[in-house]
Request: fold
Amino acid sequence: MRTRSHRRNVTLRMMCAAITIGAFIVDTTGQDHPRARDLGIRPGIYDPGPLNAITDVDPVRVGHTTIVEGDAVRTGVTAILPHGGNLFQDKVAGAVFVGNAFGKLAGSTQVHELGTIETPIVLTNTLSVGIAMDAVVRHTLAQAGNEQVRSVNPLVGETNDGGLNDIRGLHVTREHVLQAIQNARSGPVAEGSVGAGTGTICYGWKGGIGTASRRIRPGAAGQDQYTVGILAQTNFGGNLTIAGVPVYRALQPPSRRGSRAAGPNPNDGSCMLVVATDAPLDSRNLERLAARAVFGLGRTGSAYSNGSGDFAIAFSTSPEMRSRFNDLSPRSRQTLPPDAASPLFEAALEATEEAVYNSLFQATTIASSVGRAEAIPVERVRQLLKR
Reply:
């Protein structure tokens, strides 16, 4: 029986269209693709939130711009907003963890130094980081109340979609980035071959955007319930393992069949992870939470290769942890101590694993003049898991 979340996701995907451009196929219908839970895959011990998405962490919002043009452009932008207000004036506690720094995470040094995030988090392709930074700065300067702002720290991450997209053509524009920010909404999150995941490849299969969440009570009975949500932009390699099953041994994408390697190194790529929680964590413990998200990639078989940029950005939406711009007065805060963080860490591991699976199962085959990536055959995976 299909779950309510599955039907809701299919409805979202059917709002898009299947596009045929000459001999090049861009299937954006989702083909009624399931999420991991529709296949009985339920990593870990904690239950998900109602949407099983990063937007289960209120008031997080997500927006996509998917760019499909001609026979060569397959790219996009994904924006994650920690809240819907003026982020520069009402900064959230944040942190960055670097698993392997083969990548371009703009703005990370100030987040590390100050422990705050003051703009939307934007994900795109490698060569579009610059234009995305420009757009985020312009978005911030244009907000009411920011008329005197003279320094902005845009936080922009990337993966390289050059295997399917004409990345050298620099097709992402300022307007594309602003559109993703302006269209960011709460509620269900479109997954697979959308936004910043339009041109990505994961384990040789079509990757993309995936999301998941977990709800936990970290302390004694009666303590507040907290949510951890993950959004993943998957574009990395290794040996695909699903729910502990070494799927890679029986199922290989066309580009890898009969060969241990395809191209210079099929394990190269990158993964950007965004971790949201409503738990009142300070920047130190948010960095530790972000680290667990990167560790969670290992559960799916990640090789963490030399050429893979593996990053996680974490933030707390808790009002306790926010910082007002130019506020110089002392304030008291209630924060979770390190001894209460372990359940949150486990939740991040679980949600990351499931987000990667969702990015694969929800992705659709993408082909262009640059390359082709097949959607993973879900029924074949189902059979392998039953064994």
Q: What stands out?
A: Confidence is low (pLDDT under 50) at residues 1-23, 257-263. The radius of gyration is 20 Å. The longest helix spans residues 342-362.
